[in-house]
Write a structure and sequence with these properties.
CATH superfamily of the largest domain: Zn peptidases
CATH architecture of the largest domain: 3-Layer(aba) Sandwich
Bound molecules: zinc ion
Radius of gyration: 26 Å
Number of helices: 15
Number of strands: 17
Helix content: 25-40%
CATH topology of the largest domain: Aminopeptidase
Largest sheet: 8 strands, mixed
Shape: globular
């Protein structure tokens, strides 16, 4: 017994020693603490602010009021005379804007900047100031679309207009694509992708909305993380029709459709798709670890050992949960329309966001297992697999780092998988999408997207103009 204890202790000490060495040698990112970035100073900024404010006033809610969309485009043409003079302009699929700035060297692969000018509805939200006002107060502009995604669209146009004014000509072609229903079906992006693909066009890099710079305090110190979406999760909506015994409610059986549906719903929420540490989650941890003391670093450096123990805790935090697995969301239910009749069928709608590594087939198999024993039909309403991963050792990614070093030097660049979807989903065959624009947000500000009182600080807007200008101007700088 004594001998066994000795061996056990020796092994435990050796293991801890290995874990400590691992912690000390683990490649944690060299994380910069936050310092106020240099003040941006684009020329004619007042005019650029007015242009965004004017753009916010159009009620371009996806798939509604076509006259608002055409009026919005007319305003762009008036506001950016050099862009529309120097770039080939065409409308694809009726409302999607494609602009091409022809570069000097046709042998170089072009780059693409994507944005969208549709916005989500405001119904049921309490706004002050009103959502389509574009009102400026306390250094911020308020309105639907200021962050998502008219702010980015106007930053791009202002960057190009001001470069043209200074006489700059790009080496390679620069394309802008502006979708008109990114928030619902991405028809515009799909049509543009088809158009470009039919012409055999391949991009060196694709820049789209997605991550931002997130400001946060860790261990009492401030940090800014530039989260660049190098991949995005897939999307799968499934309708499950559940059958049961119908009839009059005076003599119910135990096999009702609603009761069966409840069991299935409970199973789906309890038995989640498996959680996994992917390469990007590990990258996020490498950066995060750089901000932590020894205890935190010890856990992260040995995350493979700790993973089985922390997995459950991680899964309880919705944001962390979305990073490590395919999520399951019960979103709709229908069945029964009288208080004294048992419905024979109930329909459930479930929305999954697919983590890289889980296919649509994997999730369908999972649903089959969870509905086993019940009389059901399962059908796919819509599905898009998770995207491929864009490389971080490519020139397109390097340009993000360089542009940030110029406009936001203390931002720590972290590649990650975007939990939501973007237009880039449609551009994967045309090049490597990087989903990021450089607005610095607190987590509370980031929450305003799609919510009431969405706003952008004028500082963020100015900095975004300079950031895009930097990339366009320096992509081929020697
Ligand atoms: Zn958006």
């Amino acid at each position: 017994m004594k001998r066994f204890l000795k061996i056990f202790l020796a092994v435990a000490i050796a293991l801890v020693a290995v874990m400590i060495v691992r912690t000390l040698t683990y490649p944690f990112a060299d994380v910069k603490t936050y310092a106020e970035p240099p003040a941006p100073h684009p020329e004619q900024f007042e005019k650029q602010v007015q242009q965004l404010s004017d753009g916010v006033k159009f009620q371009t809610i996806s798939d509604s009021r076509p006259e608002q969309f055409s009026a919005f485009r007319d305003t762009l043409k008036r506001s950016y005379p050099l862009v529309f003079q120097n770039m080939e302009y065409q409308l694809i699929d009726g409302n999607a804007i494609l602009l091409r700035w022809v570069g000097a060297d046709a042998d170089l692969k072009p780059i693409l900047f994507n944005a969208h000018y549709d916005v989500v509805p405001v119904a049921g939200q309490t706004w002050n100031p009103p959502p389509f006002s574009g009102i400026i107060a306390d250094g911020r502009m308020y309105g639907r679309g200021t962050l998502d995604d008219k702010g980015m669209l106007f930053s791009l146009l202002n960057a190009a207009e001001s470069l043209m004014k200074s006489g700059f000509k790009p080496q390679r072609d620069i394309y802008f694509s502006f979708d008109y229903n990114e928030e619902t079906r991405s028809d515009g992006a799909k049509a543009i992708a088809q158009y470009l693909s039919a012409r055999g066009i391949q991009f060196d890099a694709i820049y789209d909305e997605g991550g931002s710079i997130y400001k946060m305090n860790i261990g009492g110190r401030p940090y800014a993380f530039a989260m660049v979406g190098v991949a995005e999760k897939g999307y799968l909506t499934v309708r499950i029709t559940v059958h049961g015994a119908g009839g009059h409610s005076s003599m119910p059986s135990d096999n009702t459709a609603l009761g069966n549906a409840a069991i299935i719903m409970n199973r789906l929420e309890t038995n989640k798709m498996p959680a996994r540490m992917t390469k990007e989650s590990t990258d996020v941890l490498k950066s995060l670890g750089g901000t932590l003391g020894f205890g935190g670093r010890f856990v992260i450096a040995n995350n493979k050992i700790f993973w089985p123990f922390v997995k459950n805790e991680v899964s309880k935090i919705p944001m962390a949960n979305a990073m490590v697995r395919t999520t399951t969301a019960l979103t709709q239910i229908a069945g029964g329309d009288a208080d004294n009749v048992l419905p024979g069928t109930v329909t459930l709608t479930v929305n999954f966001r697919l983590a890289p590594g889980d296919s649509i087939d994997d999730v369908m198999q999972h649903i089959k297992e969870q509905t086993r024993g019940f009389d059901t039909e399962i059908e796919i309403v819509s599905g898009t697999p998770a995207s491929k991963m864009s490389p971080t050792d490519a020139h397109g990614f390097d340009m993000i780092k360089k542009a940030l070093a110029a406009v936001y030097p203390t931002a720590n660049v972290v590649p990650f998988t975007l939990p939501g979807g973007t237009d880039s989903q449609n551009y994967g065959e045309l090049g490597n999408p990087y989903r990021f624009w450089p607005v610095a947000l607190t987590l509370a500000e980031a929450d305003l997207m799609h919510n009431a009182n969405e706003n952008i600080t004028l500082d963020n807007y100015a900095r975004a103009i300079e950031y895009f200008k930097y990339i366009m101007q320096n992509y081929d700088a020697k």
